[in-house]
Amino acid sequence: MMLRRWRIAALAAAASLLALTLAACGKDDAPTKVRIGEVTRSIFYAPQYVALAKGFFAEQGLEAELTTIPGGDKTMTALLSGQIDVALVGSETSIYVHQQGSADPVLNFAQLTQTDGTFLVARKPIPDFKWEQLKGTVFLGQRKGGMPQMAGEFTLKKKGIDPQKDLTLIQNVEFANIPAAFASGTGEFVQLFEPQATVIEREGKGYVIASFGVESGKLPYTVFMAKQSFMNKNGGTIQKFTNAVRKAQKWVQTASTAEIAEAILPYFENVDKEVVTRVVERYKSQGSYATDPIVDETEWNHLLDVMESAGELKQRAEYGALVNTKFAETAVKEVK
Fold this sequence. Notes:
Blueprint: H1 2-29, E1 32-38, H2 46-53, H3 56-59, E2 62-68, H4 72-80, E3 86-90, H5 92-99, E4 106-113, E5 118-122, E6 138-140, H6 147-158, E7 168-170, H7 178-183, E8 189-193, H8 196-202, E9 207-211, H9 212-216, E10 222-227, H10 228-233, H11 235-254, H12 257-264, H13 273-285, H14 297-309, H15 319-322, H16 326-334
Parallel strand pairs: 1-2, 1-3, 6-7, 6-8
Antiparallel strand pairs: 3-10, 4-10, 5-8, 5-9
Helix pairs in contact: 2-11, 2-12, 11-16, 12-13
């Protein structure tokens, strides 16, 4: 009788141990949730949607939750307040936080785009466009202090145009309302992201005549960033995240325009497939998508030059203070 009781107790203990083991395994196997906040929904960020659509985050054991938070200031506020873990936004926002003297700096760890993503759109076709033709015109620009406007002004100055003196520059229209404002008659020229530029072209309300991305040069334009405190506590998660980004970048480099458009189309339900394909081709052909996640020091210094030219830089932010390349360098070595 006693032997029987001992066996029952032993079996119960074994069952309990097995249950605990299975529970532990289940816990370890559960994906780690990462909350991403993107500054806007744009085909400019195609590699990010590829990483989601192709399951590259999932392969790394991550559950990526993507939220669009319009405006760099709002995206950064969400990151600083802990509403999101990772922000996809212009590098200049991390510099603005640094200039305010943050004790928990925001670090750039994986670059997604390496040029400006805007285009110059005219109300009428200009086959032999010359930049000096902008002088004396009404120009509908982007938000002051934002990377699009700074890259735009940098290009204009490079072309011998003083944005404040040679143009009637409009900067008080909300980012989301700029395409509609131009379509309704505001301005002779406008600086637009895609797919809005292509949509306006298709509607016959404007014509793309130049690329600010080509003219302003390579920049760490849109980068994944996180607070230093988060990165210190979650280094493994950041590495897995960067690995997924790297895999998506490699896929985008070798895939056809049609394949990329097909992969990201679910993230642009209200945009025609033809438009998505055309925009992907435009960005890919001008080298806007970063080929690897490493934030380059030369490009970082060019970013500072652009900000300095726009009068938005109190002092130059050291590369090593706001850029962490460890995760990106590891990803380049490991993800083949």
